[in-house]
Amino acid sequence: RNVLHQIDNIDDGIGPPEWRLTLCLLFSWTVLFLILAKGVSSSGKTAYFTALFPYVILLTLLVRGVTLPGAYEGIMFYITPQWDKILEAKVWYAAVTQCFFSLAISFGPIVMFSSYNKFKQPIYRDSIIITFVDTGTSLLAGVTIFAILGHLAHELDVDITEVVKGGAGLAFISYPEAIAKMAFLPQLFAVLFFLMLFTLGVGSASSSAGCVITVINDDFPHLKKWKITAVVSLLGFVCGLVYITPGGMYILDLVDYFGGGFIIFIMAILETFAISWIYGYKNLIRDIYFMLGTKLSFYWIVEWGFFIPVSLLAIFVYSLFNYEPLKIGDSYMPASATAAGWILTFIAVSQIPIWAFIAVRKQTGDTIFE
Q1: pTM (predicted TM-score)
Q2: Which residues pair with 91 in a beta bridge?
Q3: Do the beta carbons of residue 202 and residue 32 sit within 8 Å?
Q4: Of 300, 348, 310, 248, which Cα lies nearest the Cα of 127?
Q5: Transmembrane region positions (predicted)?
Q6: What's the pLDDT tens digit per position in 289-345?
Q7: Are 337 and 10 in contact (CB under 8 A)?
Q8: In principle, which of 18, 31, 89, 153 could form an S-S bond with 160, CB 3.0–4.6 Å?
Q9: 3-state per-residue secondary structure call for the chain
Q10: Burial class (CB in 10 A: 0-12, 13-18, 19+), 108
Q11: Which residues participate in the annotated binding site?
């Protein structure tokens, strides 16, 4: 009501951007420009803060959260398995998609950052560290959030399922509501929580925007990096305006549903098949041995050559057969919005064969792979 001025539906359009949020968005992209203007070295130094500071806040909120009445019920709701859900493909689809988001798989930043590594960089070790730290952080954040949501359910004397909202609603509705009902310094914890969100956002956005900047800079090395950064930041700001309109949350859900789900899933499947079956897992294993001197076991052949590509494809196909139009609350999105989502998916996915064809045409010699 007070921040987004959110409308009930987008049948009549999404409305103009909210001016205060526009200033906040401008500030955010200005911060990103200052971080990225000097290249990956400056963004790497910033990452020491953007990566470590949220842990300080998260641990502070955790200590406070577990001491609140109702926290135990919230944590138990979070960690108690529902074994019947394991048989549902949509759960695996959501879980894999979340891993893609959490680790930025198939988004580009991992490839971009690795391009700055030394040739002998122990990527095997780095991959293990990153995946374990990411999983641990997710579990830590989950315990923290559900401890405080359990307190909110206790204060309202309702079941915890009634206070948990998925998507952006969890961060911007349920959690702030729970913090507001704290008896001890709710303003402090509100500031800490949203400062943590802003820091996490800057960290994620700097890697995504840095990926775009690096690609452009590699193709046009004569252009000054700060100029490329300025153009990318300006375009990012303009594109972001659509999300701070009264109908922006609907657009966010639409882009998340198609862009964050379908598109990334398809790209991940194609990348996996391309590396494992076109380039060949044997070549990949040989390359890793050449780089690191590490001989990978048969386990990796099974994983890369069969299990990962086949399981991803099976989950995705099953999800398509059980596809349901995007639903917001109790109503479905307009047909025009759903059509726009499919057009977005088509445009994004079509880039792969188009640029693959261009890359093949540019190859010299008789074979693509020697």
Answers
A1: 0.80
A2: none
A3: yes
A4: 300
A5: 19-37, 49-72, 92-116, 128-149, 188-216, 228-251, 257-279, 300-321, 341-360
A6: 898 888 888 888 888 888 988 888 888 888 788 777 777 766 777 788 888 888 888
A7: yes
A8: 153
A9: CCCCCCCCCCCCCCCCCCHHHHHHHHHHHHHHHHHHCCCHHHHHHHHHHHHHHHHHHHHHHHHHHHCCCCHHHHHHHHHCCCHHHHHCHHHHHHHHHHHHHHHCCCCCHHHHHHCCCCCCCCHHHHHHHHHHHHHHHHHHHHHHHHHHHHHHHHHHCCCHHHCCCCCHHHHHHHHHHHHHCCCCCHHHHHHHHHHHHHHHHHHHHHHHHHHHHHHHHHHCCCCCHHHHHHHHHHHHHHHHHHHHCCCHHHHHHHHHHHHHHHHHHHHHHHHHHHHHHHHHHHHHHHHHHHHHCCCCCHHHHHHHHHHHHHHHHHHHHHHHHCCCCCEECCEECCHHHHHHHHHHHHHHHHHHHHHHHHHHHHCCCCCCCC
A10: middle
A11: 102, 200, 204
